[in-house]
Specification:
Blueprint lengths: L1 E5 L4 H12 L4 E5 L7 H10 L2 H4 L5 H5 L9 H10 L8 E4 L2 E4 L3 H8 L1
Parallel strand pairs: 1-2
Antiparallel strand pairs: 1-3, 3-4
Helix pairs in contact: 2-5
Amino acid sequence: MVVVNGIKNCDSVKKAISFLKENSIEYSFRDFKTDGVDCDEIKKWLQRSDINKLFNTKGTTYRKLNLKELNLDDSKKADWLCKENLLIKRPVIQYDNGIIIGYDKELYEMEFL
């Protein structure tokens, strides 16, 4: 089963869900805002991906928290991901073979079709 992690109003999440629906791929959706992601789950994602790919420096939350000024190392970035799930780049797609971070149609096609 494919799990799409993100927030409902995110354009990248909407594109990912559209791709899955168009290709008749079953999925479930976990909303960061309502369901949250615990730190253990984030640590599992970090074992399969680079922190700089998972940590969203382009979003409103990053700017609002003024995190750029803190010059965070990887450990501190991981701590912030646990405290503030909206810093996670979206979507995070979990599936049998691993995770995909962000919307990447070509990669989705390679993995799911």
